Amino acid sequence: MSLPDIPSPRPGPLAGHVYLVGAGPGDPELLTLRGARLIAGADAVVFDNLVSPVIVDLAPPAAERHYVGKKASDHTLPQGEINRLLVRLAQAGKRVVRLKGGDPFIFGRGGEEMEVLVGAGITVEVVPGVTAAAGIAAYAGIPLTHRDHARSVIFTTGFLKNGALDLDWPMLARPGQTLVVYMGISRLAEICRELIAHGLPATTPAGVVERGTTRAQRVAVGTLATLADVVRDADIRPPALTIVGDVVGLYPRLAWFSPEQVDPVRHAPHVGCTGVHPEPDCDSAT
User: Which positions fall inside the Tetrapyrrole methylase domain (predicted)?
Assistant: First the structure.
């Protein structure tokens, strides 16, 4: 991926800093220019499971590369060890880029890592990324808001720290909004049942997008009553994002992305990954 010759609007990275950089939802070309410039000047890159190797390879050849990816029930390093690694690298005077799928502050544990770093006296900069919800919905042709169908959008997670799915179901089941569920594929049938039980019609359009924005993208759509069966029959697997609301009904007409036409090199999966997209970490884990 080449960058246009645009002067940086800010000074380059400073030694001993950590940059929490959102790598986007899978397509490496969705990385921001600021993120690309910081990676190009990094001494160390700490990256998650679903960050494209094209993005990681923007780092200088001499830069340290630390893979700390998370997949469901399979963590290369526990979160506490990742926190300590970031502190140790920064305290050694390195310019550290912590690469996260999607956006660091949307189900990406960026806030947790920043708290630890700030507590250790380390300066941190956050570089936003295209969150999975926005990027994946766009590539699926599902507008998250629409004047005729959705006045608001809600992001929630189907993977809670305590394992219980104790969400605010009455709020999530309100009409006239779009609901996006990160990391909910393993609890999909339960999520659909709860939404119906709390007032959403069983005929509400709903869909799941697997490995969105990548060459492996697949979309399965149905209703709250049928979605779990549709996803099972299509063998849709994580990482996948669930979208519920009338806007999903626009998918058949607005779908524009053709994975078959994507350059395979641009979307090559990282070694050890199940795919190239955001299941925890969490924007890194849909």
Answer: 17-228
